[in-house]
Amino acid sequence: MKTPMVVAMFAILAAGCGGSRAVEIDPQQQVVGSRWNATLATPAGLAGVTQVRGSGWMGADDRDSSRTQAYVNISNSTPGGRHPWHVHVGQCGNDQGILGSAEAYPLLEVGGNGRAEARAAVDIPVPTSGQYFISVHASPNNLGTVIACGNLAPPSR
Asked: Cα(107)–Cα(82) distance, rounded to whole angstroms?
């Protein structure tokens, strides 16, 4: 019977053979336990008109601790749509302003499959407390209509 330690040692040794790496780490992704996470949905007032859904997160910028990375993806949106998005202070329905500069957040450009994703680098350190949410707006000319929103849950520590 092999103990977990022996199995782990064989796995490490085997990974070292042949010059290939055993684990690939994507530096563009955040470790789930170190970021604020949200599930986005269309607000109740627009139910039936549109049903956009998605997810997002904010976390530390691995290259610069004075910056926050933010990410959002949406699906079931209108192909060709262009949607501003931001991390906001507060909670969905209780907006207290954009976290950082609005210009830091690139537009979501919806593809033919109804999906879009974007990343932002905000010039402030990652918050360690407070309430935050991700908001996706109808268009650059209609920032007042939110088509998807999700409260960010703080990282588990």
From this structure: 6
Element (H, E) at 16: helix 4-16
The predicted-structure confidence for 28-41, as pLDDT tens digits, reads as follows 444 445 799 999 99
Q: Which residues of 18-36 are buried (b: 16+ CB within 10 A; e: fewer)?
A: eeeeeeeeeeeebeeeebb
Is residue 54 within 8 A of residue 150, CB to CB? The reply is yes
- Between CA 12 and CA 19, with CA 18 as vertex, the angle to 5 degrees is 80
AA letter at 5: M
- The whole-model pTM stands at 0.76
Share of the chain above pLDDT 90, in %: 66
